[in-house]
Amino acid sequence: MRKTTALRAAAAATAALLTVTACSSRRDEADQDTAVDGACKGQQTTGITDDAIKLGGIYPLSGPASAYGTISKGVGAYFEYVNDKGGIDGRKVRFIVRDDGYQPPKAVEEARRLVEQEKVFAVFQTLGTPSTAAVWDYLDQQKVPQPFVATGASVWGTDDRHPWTIGWQPNYVAEARVYAKYLKDTKPKAKVAVLYQNDDFGKDLLGGFEKAVAGSGVKVVATESYEVTDPSVSAPMASLSRSRADVLLDITTPKFGSQALAADARNTGWNPLHIVNNVSSSAAVLKPVGFKNVQGVVSATYFKDPADPQWADDPDVKTYKEALHKYAPDTDPDNQFNAYGWAVASSLHKALDSMKCPTREGLRDAVRNLKDVRVGMLLPGVTMSTGHGDAFPLETMQLMRFKGERWHLFGKPVDTREEFGPLTK
């Protein structure tokens, strides 16, 4: 898999850190708490005891991607809910949240604090491809699990040099394959314009889409990128409109997703089918644009939308909503980012339960040996599976279309493993 400029830049952000820590790595390893006997002897027990687990998370609570920050509240609410029920295998969870402002160098600083000062068991969730890429070398060197990172970059599942890091959500190539199949089935001569974020996130999904439509009648006729530091996407949207494409593939983070949807709505002379990627499909992204202006927009998902009436009596959704009202009363339970946080936290719970050893190594191995694990907030037919040669827990998604004031699922769940084959390097 080729390395993109953004991934190399993020890795470069850790160079000084790795230089500093290299000389102390032997001492750090010697200072680690380890299991003293039995089958787990010698494995790391830092951050986990018989009655507690300490986890760290790094999120953009501020900055251009701050809309994602509320994910941490969904995660935190889940752990508080579990703690009140006795914890995970009797262990109460302490979840420490750090803000990196969506800046890779800051993510490195926060990762060091979590590992070296807080002594966390794992860095559960680093949000964003650039931030995750900036810290995974360090966490790998320190042998600290980095499970279920909040980014769908395919590299988390295809790279075999970082066994301590793994993704969770369907990777961006898998998501792109779902959109490609939809267009090949319903608009086989589609002309597609693409707006994408100029980093590994945007390039990964764009590349996956181009590869998935190769050889078909679906053609990418125009592409425009933007930087995460740009004030708006008005200029690239204006440029794309001149392509007269009949489909707009919108590969953006929330702030820019709202801007792109608004720009599309204002341009009454161009009315493409608007496909917005999953990470910008939350109603919190669409609402500022005006629901009347986003009718017919298409996206894909893999977990239950708490705002969808079809899940009103679903026991897992009811538990989620009740818990969020209790433990995070200042948050909106209908916000999909909060539901995402709850779903990924409950997924980690499943992995922790399956550890053969209550150690860092035990968690590292558990997340790579999941067999059709059901998680309550995932859609029916979507389960977690990993194994030898497959480090992608979720690869099934279902399409949805926005009507009225909410998303409506349509079609059947698409298992991209079966439809397109396994994703490899």
From the structure above, extract its key features.
4-stranded antiparallel beta sheet; 13 strands; 425 residues; 16 helices; disordered N terminus; 4-stranded parallel beta sheet; alpha/beta
Explain what you see.
The protein has 425 residues and is of the alpha/beta class. It contains 16 helices and 13 strands. Strands 7-6-8-9 form a four-stranded parallel sheet, sandwiched between helices. Strands 10, 11, 12 and 13 form a four-stranded antiparallel sheet that branches. Strand 11 and strand 12 (406-409) form a beta hairpin. Helix 4 (71-84) crosses helix 14 (336-353). The radius of gyration is 21 Å and the shape is globular. Residues 1-6 and 19-30 have low confidence and may be disordered.
Measured as a percent range, the helix fraction is: 25-40%
Strand content: 15-25%
Order of helices and strands: HHHEHEHEHEHEHEHEHEHEHEHHHEEEH
Shape: globular
Biggest β-sheet: count, sense, barrel? 4 strands, parallel
The total beta strand count reads 13
In whole angstroms, the N-to-C terminal distance is: 5 Å
The radius of gyration over CA amounts to 21 Å
Structural class: alpha/beta
Q: In what order do the strands lie side by side in the largest sheet?
A: 7-6-8-9
Q: How many alpha or pi helices? A: 16
Name the average pLDDT. Answer: 92
